[in-house]
Amino acid sequence: MILPGATLGVLGGGQLGRMFTLAAHSMGYRVWVLDPDPDSPTGRMADRHLQAAYDDAQALEEMASGCAAVTTEFENVPAETLEFLEARLPVRPGSKAVAIARDRIREKTFIRDLGLATAPFFAITSTDDLEPACASLTMPALLKTSQLGYDGKGQIGIDNLEQAQLAFEDLNRTPCILEECVRLEQELSVVLARSVDGRTAVYPVGENIHVNGILDTTRVPGRIPEAVADKACDMALQLANAMDYCGVLAVEFFLTPDGQLLINEMAPRPHNSGHYSIDACLTSQFEQQVRTLCGLPPGSPRLLSPAVMVNVLGKLWNAGTPRWQYLFAEGHTALHLYGKEEARPGRKMGHYTCMAEDAGQAMRIAERVRAAIDPAAPDDD
Ligand code: AMP
Questions:
Q1: How many CB atoms lie within 10 A of CB 336?
Q2: CA-to-CA distance for 69 and 90, rounded, in angstroms?
Q3: Which residue minimizes the CA distance to atom 9 of ligand 1?
Q4: Which CATH architecture has domain 186-373?
Q5: Half-sphere exposure of 46 (CA within 13 A, CB side)
Q6: 326 C-beta neighbours (distance < 10 Å), count
Q7: What's the farthest any 2 CA atoms get from each other in the chain?
């Protein structure tokens, strides 16, 4: 067990690393972060910022000798980096799980081989793979890059073989999956923590609304039949157990109109759809990351209040500074800003979580806040 006073390392200095650092600090740990960005959200907060590339041998050597254990806030750190660190100190989640989660072909194949349902898909590694894939799938479909895609990036909608060929060229013939577009009744996610000795804590299933491929809102509890929620938790646990996973794992699902539950993807880290846990649960997903990293048992994931989390994207700054005073006027709404200077339209700048007697009421507050903080909205003072 790694106890308070120790130094923890995190690879990646975005908002997830920042919220990990906040949790670790409040529990009495020190944090070092590795991120090449001189002005990263985590770098401003960590006890030490190793400002270097993720494969910088000297920085990795320093991290290995100065930290008691290392975690990651994003899955795209080079595999060799995790393997190098893993040979010297605990790295949780481990390189094997991260390698599966970072690559859609490996991820979807792993899920399918476990007997868990996904949308129909084919791995596309050469132009020749497109014809049989298009012949087997019902159009429309999505061509998604196997690596480095997030928030709907690296995805092209296609209706026929010709479009698939053009799209594959557009993506420079990088390995992809071609996946059938499924009709979405709902999108759901399960966030769980699993300790090094296999103890698990599963958060209540969140109902997610995406806008333009980016998560907009998470509602907890979701409007999900109990049997569906139980099945989603069970599928997420099967995945975690099959990988002998240690850390926080998020699994995203599609629910189709005919009641099929399909796994879309997983993230080997705390997830945007679990941010509500900071304010609305006994133990936040970031505390779980610290606990599982340190060889401690997961804390209780119990929901203390129904909640709705809303992402705040850079486009909110288009017409000026958001009018936060209207958010703070709500007594049960918590704001989290990530300390990013530049507000690009699709950039995640922060989030807020509204808590209320029930999730419907929390949603109404969330929408009221959304309208009130918008600097483009007419002022009714
Ligand atoms: P992803 O990056 O794969 O998580 O996709 C981002 C969003 O695009 C998802 O949350 C869905 O809203 C949508 N999407 C992705 N794949 C599919 C699919 N096969 N069918 C329908 N919608 C999809």
A1: 18
A2: 5
A3: 213
A4: 2-Layer Sandwich (3.30)
A5: 29
A6: 17
A7: 63
The CATH code for residues 7-91 is 3.40.50.20
Q: Is 182 in the pocket of ligand 1 (CB under 6 A)?
A: yes
Contact criterion met (CB below 8 Å) for 143 and 170: no
Please name the residue that has the structure tokens 């958001």. Answer: 322
Q: Which amino acid is at 239?
A: L
**190: closest CA among 205, 207, 208?**
205
Conformational region of residue 345, where left means phi above 0, alpha means psi within -120 to 50, and beta covers everything else: alpha
Q: What angle do CA 134, 252, 153 make, to 5 degrees?
A: 60
Does residue 107's CB lie within 6 angstroms of at least one atom of ligand 1?
A: no
Query: Can you tell me the distance from the alpha carbon of 190 to that of 233, in angstroms, rounded to the nearest whole number?
Result: 6
Cα of 236 from ligand 1 centre, angstroms: 18
User: pLDDT (tens digit, 9 = 90+) per residue, 260-313?
Assistant: 999 999 999 999 999 999 999 999 999 999 999 999 999 999 999 999 999 999
pLDDT in tens, 175-206: 999 999 999 999 999 999 999 999 999 999 99
Q: How far is the CA of 225 from the centre of ligand 1 (A)?
A: 22
Whether ligand 1 lies within 6 angstroms of the CB of 213 is answered as yes
Classified by CATH at the fold level, domain 120-180 comes out as: Dna Ligase; domain 1 (3.30.1490)
Residues of the chain with CATH 3.40.50.20: 7-91
What is the SS3 assignment for 72? strand
Q: Write out the two tokens for 83.
A: 């393997």
Phi-psi label, residue 306: left if phi above 0, alpha if psi -120 to 50, beta otherwise: beta
CA dist 270 and 276 (Å) reads: 11
